[in-house]
Specification:
Blueprint: H1 10-16, H2 20-35, E1 41-43, H3 51-64, H4 91-101, H5 103-106, H6 112-131, E2 185-186, E3 192-193, H7 224-232, H8 238-246, H9 251-259, H10 287-305, E4 316-318, H11 324-329, E5 334-337, E6 343-344, E7 353-354, E8 368-370
Parallel strand pairs: 1-8
Antiparallel strand pairs: 2-3, 4-5, 6-7
Helix pairs in contact: 2-6, 3-6, 6-10, 7-10
């Protein structure tokens, strides 16, 4: 599998960005965080936010979807399983396309946790600079919803300004019919409205060497006991921790797939016949950002649970998921191996970072904690 990481210098990177104001905004945040973190922002669970705070975040997300395509987006991998770049898309779509283009570099490799930590943070920067967001990225504690996922009150806020909306209408391609995102339009893999389709057993029919429990109920993978097992276990074992969290039937994947629709990576009815389902366009779903903030929180909690976990890293740069045998040998990537000095690719949209700069949420480029 071809592997490519861009390593542009800071000066050449700046020339790639369309909009010097946003460049300086992100650079200022980077320099400030790198120099000091005396007053970290606090990321809170969605349900603890006030109605006004929820409305502010939702409004900023929708604002990004109303901004035009950014010509700074420069795909670097060009995998053959994604739609071509659509220059008529929105700025929100551009951020999604980064995830699509980089998919094979950032899942089941050592970049999984560092990339998504960085990705949620630069997305927050965009919400602030381009759409006036004042808060911190919220997270979604899906462990709270695991016991009765479909009927959770999390999916029962239909307020058109501050509500996330509920499940999709199965008679209309699982499009979300209520809440603030009922009119949320997306460009990838084809133009459509946001979709959600509850799928309790998403692993049936998958490769049995990778999905060893095909009849597993997805909500059993992200219970509070599973979160506790991850946070308190794998002491000094980064590879083991990531492997358990990112497993094909683990918490990360199960939340994606139980949601179906966009977060689950299923192709909409408008997609061409060659549409490839998968995690590539899962960032279409606004819940993606709260889901990955929760994934980041589990990592944050694990890092802080034992000194042996703090600031450690291990992983390869190449996906090894062709079959169960090779995956079991290299569950978080094969050689060439990554290091703390390795670069997190940005496809021209944001300033690139090293893994080391995001390994700790209160040093390097970052300045936040979780409640």
């Amino acid at each position: 599998m071809p592997f490519l990481l861009l390593s542009n210098s800071y000066s050449s990177y700046l020339t790639m960005l369309a909009g010097i104001g946003f460049t300086l905004f992100v650079a200022a945040h980077v320099l400030l965080a790198a120099s000091t973190c005396t007053d970290p922002s606090v990321r809170k669970e969605w349900r603890t936010l006030t109605k006004d705070e929820r409305a502010e975040w939702i409004g900023a997300v929708k604002c990004l979807s109303e901004l035009p395509h950014d010509s700074a987006l420069t795909p670097s991998v060009h995998p053959d399983d994604i739609a071509p770049l659509n220059t008529s898309s929105s700025y929100y779509d551009d951020i999604v396309y980064m995830h699509m283009d980089l998919n094979h570099l950032i899942h089941f490799t050592g970049l999984f946790l560092p990339f998504h930590r960085w990705y949620v943070q630069v997305y927050e920067y965009a919400l602030k600079e381009k759409c006036g967001f004042k808060g911190a990225s919220p997270y979604w504690n899906w462990a709270e919803d695991a016991p009765n996922f479909f009927n959770s009150t999390f999916f029962q806020d239909f307020d058109p300004i501050s509500g996330l909306g509920g499940w999709g209408n199965l008679l209309n391609d699982a499009q979300v019919p209520n809440g603030a995102f009922s009119d949320f339009k997306l460009s990838y893999p084809s133009y459509h409205t946001l979709r959600r389709n509850f799928t309790l057993q998403p692993y049936i029919g998958q490769d049995p060497t990778l999905f060893t429990e095909p009849y597993l109920y997805a909500n059993t993978s992200f219970t509070q006991s599973e979160v506790d097992k991850m946070v308190s276990g794998f002491v000094g074992d980064y590879k083991g921790f990531q492997t358990y969290l990112e497993a094909f039937e683990g918490a990360h994947s199960s939340v994606h797939l139980i949601m179906g629709g966009d977060l689950g990576g299923t192709c909409p009815n408008t997609a061409p016949p060659d549409c490839t389902p998968g995690p590539t366009f899962s960032a279409n779903e606004p819940l993606f950002w709260m889901h990955h903030a929760m994934v980041d929180k589990v990592w944050f909690d694990w890092q802080n649970a034992n000194p042996a976990n703090a600031d450690i890293f291990y992983g390869g740069s190449v996906q090894m998921i062709d079959n169960g045998t090779i995956y079991n040998e290299y569950p978080n990537g094969g050689p060439p191996m990554l290091s703390l000095d390795s670069v997190i690719p940005a496809d021209g949209m944001f300033q690139e970072s090293t893994i080391e700069a995001v390994i700790n949420t209160t040093t390097g480029l970052l300045c936040y904690i979780y409640d």
